[in-house]
Design brief:
Layout lengths: L1 H33 L5
């Protein structure tokens, strides 16, 4: 039973981390477009 809880916690943590990284990448892209210097 403890192994199942540990696996579930690891999966939830991985999903949370992946979403956080995707949000960060999207925000960085928007920021780069907003602050893009016109040559």
């Amino acid at each position: 039973m403890k192994k199942l809880i540990l696996i579930a916690a690891a999966v939830v943590g991985a999903i949370f981390l992946r979403k956080k990284l995707q949000d960060s990448k999207a925000q960085k892209t928007v920021w780069n477009e907003a602050t893009d210097k016109v040559g």
